[in-house]
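In these records, each integer encodes one residue's backbone shape. Here is one protein:

___
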Amino acid sequence: MHQPVTATEIFVICLLAGWLLLTILYALFNRRVAAITRRYDLFRWLSAYQLFSTTASDYRLLYRDQLTDDSMTEWTVISLTPVWKPWHLLWFPQKLVTHTIHSLADDLVTGLAKRKGTTAAAKINERFLYRALQRYVQQQPCTPGLAGRQFRIDKLTGLPGSPEYSEAFISNFHQP
């Protein structure tokens, strides 16, 4: 026999449909909607639930060391692809770190492009985005005789099958 739909079931269906609709709108109009939703979406539930989303991989992060004899090492790419283990289905905190680094790099490059030639661009090293990336890069393995470290963000300009990168941002050297 067919049972009638209860009020609770209707409420749950409406709640999930609304969540899905807001998620789609958030994904389509992310920049515009983010300014509004940051105020009310305390736990970032709207952006955390996205169907078929992947980590944006159109940036790569590199660093090099300046040694005490003023020579420099080659650029080293920082892997932002964590090694996946079966227990990561339940617990995978490292994925949050890689998402955050991608987001910081994207926000820094996008922000600089908007402020090109202004005093805000000149003071980029005072911003949280810059300092967070700098701190992450400083945690990478050190070369003996390290005097300073510099990082660079490259943007993917080629196709994913044949990647080509162009320099999007380069920092100053910083003391370890």
Residues 6 and 12 are 10 Å apart (CA to CA).
